[in-house]
Amino acid sequence: MAVRHHLIDRPPAAVWSVLEDPALYGEWVVGTSDSRPEEGDWPGTGSSIAYHVHVGPKRFTGRTVVRHVDRPRTLELEAEGGPWGTARIAFDIRPWGERTLVIVDEHPLRGLGGTLHNPLLDAFLQLRHRTMLPRLARLVERVTAAEPDGGARADAPAG
């Protein structure tokens, strides 16, 4: 199991504004691009998004399904990785003063990844999270206002 945390310089509402936008998924999740809604109303339970995954010169289609959501605290996803199987990715979103502590817990669930799960795979996931969580923080900080009541998208119309 790979668990990592990161402190984001915005309140939880700002973090959720990015997590709830399926078009932004490919901007902060390592290896993905061109994310788009697939089924349901993201991030409602059972909803899904599709995206492209790049592995070297190869490009595959990926899919992530929301398995559990308890806004403003929890988002649990199941990412489908083709022959690698699926992974559970759980986000714990905690207020931390004027900031947000985001804890991600990821582990292979089914398929080849689940069968071959070992400390080396966990080390790889830790490296991935070392990139992914700062990307999420930069994106949240870039697209949302800095005010403590914040969460409003900086590019959203005032009103």
From TrEMBL:
<protein>
    <submittedName>
        <fullName>Polyketide cyclase/dehydrase</fullName>
    </submittedName>
</protein>
<dbReference type="InterPro" id="IPR023393">
    <property type="entry name" value="START-like_dom_sf"/>
</dbReference>
<dbReference type="InterPro" id="IPR019587">
    <property type="entry name" value="Polyketide_cyclase/dehydratase"/>
</dbReference>
<dbReference type="Pfam" id="PF10604">
    <property type="entry name" value="Polyketide_cyc2"/>
</dbReference>
